[in-house]
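User: Can you write out an input/output pair for a complex, sequences first and structure second?

Assistant: Here is one pair. Inputs:
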Amino acid sequence: MKFRKKETDGKVDMQMAAMIDIVFQLLIFFMLTLKIIPPEGDFNINMPIGEMAQSSSDIKLDLKVKIEANPDGSLSQLWFGGRALGNDYPDCFDRLNNEIAQIAGGQQGYSDDLEVELNPDYNLHYRYIVKAISSCRGRMRNGSLITYIEKIKFAPINKPQ
Amino acid sequence: MKFKHAKPTIVEADMTPMIDMTFQLIAFFMIVTNFDQTQADERVKLPADRLARPPKVARENEIVLNVGFLRNSDGSVSSGPFIFYPGEDIRVADFEPRLRREFTISEKQHGLEKTQDTTIKIRSDGDVPTGMIQELIKMGKDIGFVKFALVAKSEDDP
């Protein structure tokens, strides 16, 4: 009796072509849908325009920051209380940050009884108000945020004449 | 004389490293792809600040308002500022009916308490006059919104 020699040697060939097709399609999909968006953060405005603190007795010191603008919207003068801090952006905001730091007590955390009222000119560019809010809010040190003042509000709108 | 029978030569490329790399690329793109920020409008050139950090706890309800300019190809301002609302660009002064409608819809869906808890996130171009942002906040406040946040791009420490 004659036996046929088995030709299979136990190796199973997987059909890879279909999988590779799908994998490449997935890869192309994710590559095309990728949008590189820089991370964004936000600043809460707790006390909107002109509103007085709900319990005014909580606020012991109301700090006023006035930001004047040139006709083209650039910074003309930064005032902290009655003191002019200049218009050399961004150094004048660093000076504001230092003034706030002295009042808020340096590194000992934020003070709950302090409030800042921002009074910008109508045509002042938004980037300066963000810088002003940031200067009042605190500063970054060694990668961590030191908060000076949480309560920031806007003064009533300065409508152009 | 005996000749050896020549076997057919089929060269099989080793696909394993390529498949490994492809799966790693897919995993990378799946992780970095962010589908959340669909409300951000690319026309708005946000100012950058070191203190701008994403909130530690994501807000449950928020309305994002993109305020910016229409710009020419060279980056100069052609018109605006507008609020880039889905499908149309609206001037800040004309936005009050839309914001009121947002409030009404949200009130019907979630109730008054949750609607008042909604944060209005203002993503504004760095060149927009601050007075317009103040007007937008006042408009929202008059309608009944309470919480407002001004957005900036996160800047790394020097």
